[in-house]
Design a protein that fits this description.
single chain, mainly alpha, two-stranded antiparallel sheet, 6 helices, 2 strands
Amino acid sequence: MTTDQQAEFARLQGYLNGQGERNSHSAIWPRAVKARMELVDCLAKVTDEQAAWAPSAEDWSIKEVALHILNGSRSTRRIVQALSAGETADSSGIEPPRKTTDATVVELSDQLRDDGIEWAVAISQLPPTPALEPTANHSMFGDLHARAWHLFQRVHDLDHMNQIEAVKQADGYPAA
C-alpha cells in the first residue's frame, strides 16, 4: 500500500468515525438509503447480457459487483447491529470475494432494494446513539464504531455504483 493510499484510508476513517459521532442512526439513514436507491436506479435498464459482461477477465461484471454489494451489505448490517448492542463483531469477512450468480439483474436489483428495507427495519430497532465502543476493524479503514459502519455502507454502495458506471462506459459494452 502506498503512502497516498494510507493517507486516503486514514482520511476516510476519520470521516466515517467523525460523522458517526455527530449523527444518530436515524440521521445517517436518509443518506444511506439515497445511495442505495441511486444504486438501484443505476441497475435499471441494464439487460442480463450487459450485466454478465466484463471489460476483461480481471474486471468484474455488473452482476458480480451487485452480488458483492448485497453480500457486503448483509455482513455490514450484522456488524452494525452487534456493535450497537455493545457486542463484539467479527468483521473478517466484510469484503466478500468475487462470485458469480445465476440471478438476473432484476432479481439482484430487487434484492438490493429489499436489503435497503431490511436496513431501515434494523436501524429502527437500534438505540439511536449507541456508545462509540466497541469497534470492529475494517481491513482498509481501521477501527470503526457502529454508526461509522452504517456510514461505511453508504460509501461502499456509492463506490461500487461508480464501478458499475465504469463498466457501462467500457469499450465493448453490449448495446441494449
